[in-house]
Amino acid sequence: MNAEIFHRTIKPGILSAAGRTSFVKIVGKNPDVFVQNGTIILKGTGSTFSNKIYNTGLNSVDFFGL
């Protein structure tokens, strides 16, 4: 996958669908995105949100076709 497409299109779509007000206090405004068992998970970065996880409940196939 092209990194530019991911960061400009796919990731913003995921964060929007996850609902910013739902995850920002848990994993911050710019979390890492990964897939676990077909579900999109957000992982906090930086010292404040490090190792904190937010399960979006979103299906990876809807965003990645996987």
Task: Explain how this protein is built.
With 66 residues, the chain is of the alpha+beta class. The protein has one domain. The chain contains 4 helices and 3 strands, in the order ααββαβα. Strands 1-2-3 form a 3-stranded antiparallel sheet. A hairpin with a 2-residue loop joins β1 and β2. The longest helix has 16 residues. The chain is globular and about 30 Å long. The model has no long low-confidence stretch (mean pLDDT 93).
Notable characteristics:
alpha+beta, three-stranded antiparallel β-sheet, 4 helices
Q: What secondary-structure arrangement, pairings included, does this model have?
A:
Layout: H1 3-18, H2 20-27, E1 32-36, E2 39-43, H3 46-49, E3 53-59, H4 61-64
Antiparallel strand pairs: 1-2, 2-3
